[in-house]
Amino acid sequence: MGWWSKRNFLLVLMALAVLQLAGEGCTRAPRDPRGAVPLSSSDNVTFPSERWPAYARGFSWGVGSQGETVLIIRQPRTEEVLAVVSRDDFALEGDEWRDFPRIVLGTGGVITTSTTHVALLDAAGGLERWAGCTSLKYLRSDAMLTWVAEHRVADVSGDAGIHVERVMALDPGLVLVSPSHDLPSHHGWPVVPVTEYLEPHPLGRAEWMCALAWMVGDSLQGAQAFGELRRRYEALKQASTDLHASTDPPKQEGRRPTLFTGSVADGIWHAPGADSFVAHWIEDAGGTYALKDLGSFGNVEVGMESLLRLTEQSDAWVMVTYDPDGFTVDDLLAMDPRHEALLQGTGAVWVCNTAFADYFTDVVVHPEWMLEDLMALMSGQTRGPHGLLEVLLSNPKP
Q1: Whether the predicted pLDDT of 336 surpasses 90
Q2: pTM
Q3: CA 398 to CA 394: how far, in whole Å?
Q4: Which stretches of the chain are DSSP H helices?
Q5: Which pLDDT tens digit goes with each residue over 160-211?
Q6: Which tens digits make up the pLDDT trace of 106-135?
Q7: 389 in Cβ contact with 373 (< 8 Å)
């Protein structure tokens, strides 16, 4: 038996068949207090008629000089405006745009520089325009690799991250990059920063498919795809919430399991903060994030002594690793001898082995898969239904 009984987990899944939650695609709607909120501080830049997505903090919609839709891209953590994107030159002629990098999209192919970009482009219905990629060797989906071969998507990786000459030959209409890119600007390509990986909520990451859909010309595809996965995710979360609310708290299976994650480096434990998509996954699945009080933005750092005290109050350690030969307890101990003390403190270890779980591609656009797997392991199962998580070690605490 787990913190939930297996019977309760089945009831959760059954509830999904009848639970109807309003889905509003990529438009702003009431949301969880931990989700994205409109910027209202006088210190932040705002634009007239700006519209916000449901969860994402890294982009919003503005209105151009003649009523056209423009895309405003921000750094989700600092709220800094990184770029304003339009489909037409004249859309950004207004004074409100002049202080920001302005990008006009072209009609050529799309260049991606991350596997997450590929997943988002696919969900947005934009693969027909996919021309080049710097991360082809990291793709693992057979369907995606077949697409690459059949449509001759070019490998544009290079020693400096991107092969400039190959990209020039493709004459792209859109180049997707991280905000920290060092791509030369004199080439004149429409280089658009994608801040998906900085989004605090899993649904905020996935909602970037709406921005990419607009950039490649098919907003409806992105809105429909996001609306479906959002309804599934929110239904799972609501079912988990209802289950805990209906269970007598003193009972063991009604207690929210406490989970921690992260890794050690130079004697310091590094882990996602409380306002991270990992922490939200744990909370939305019905758990408690052990490090929730140690900082919100970015990674938090914890001394090993403090971490050991936290593990004594935790039920499981959730870790992400890469091992094509399979990951064992011996592998865990070989990574760092201090892991043995952590194993003595916590009750279980759950592993996402990215050699087999497509954590950096498919999971970005299907966050509900990780949510279901977390719920399954919390219910006492040894492996999630999507194979993203499995129990490496289990020694439940009384």
Answers
A1: no
A2: 0.86
A3: 12
A4: 6-18, 115-123, 142-151, 164-170, 202-206, 208-216, 219-245, 277-284, 304-311, 329-335, 339-345, 362-365, 367-378
A5: 789 999 999 999 999 999 988 777 665 789 999 999 999 999 999 999 999 9
A6: 999 999 999 999 999 999 999 999 999 999
A7: yes
* Residue with token string 């709607």: 29
Among 63, 67, 65, 61, residue whose Cα is nearest residue 90: 65
What digits encode the pLDDT tens for the residues 288-316? Answer: 999 888 766 678 888 888 888 888 889 99
Question: Cα-atom radius of gyration of the chain, to the nearest Å?
Answer: 22
Q: Which two tokens stand for residue 149?
A: 């071969």
Q: Burial of 143 by CB count in 10 Å (0-12 exposed, 13-18 middle, 19+ buried)? A: exposed
Helix axes 208-216, 219-245, angle to 10 degrees: 170
Q: Where are the alpha helices (DSSP H) in 171-320?
A: 202-206, 208-216, 219-245, 277-284, 304-311
Buried b (16+ CB within 10 A) or exposed e, 227-249: bebbbbbbbbbbbbeebbeebee
Please tell me whether residue 391 adopts helix, strand or coil conformation: strand
Which distant-in-sequence residues (6+ apart) come within 8 Å of 41 by Cβ?
A: none
Distances (CA, A) of 33 to 55, 172, 272, 366: 10, 39, 19, 22
* CA pseudo-torsion sign 380, 272, 223, 146: negative
Give the Cα separation of 72 and 79 in Å (integer). 11
Across 17-29, average pLDDT: 37
Q: Which domains does the chain have, with CATH numbers?
A: 227-394 (3.40.50.1980)
**Rounded distance between C-alpha atoms, residue 221 and residue 218, angstroms:** 6
Q: Cβ distance 311 to 351 under 8 Å? A: no
DSSP per position, 306-360 = HHHHHHTT-SEEEEEE--TT---HHHHHHH-TTHHHHHHHSSEEEEEETTTS-TT
pLDDT higher than 50, residue 30: no
Residue 9, both tokens: 């987990």
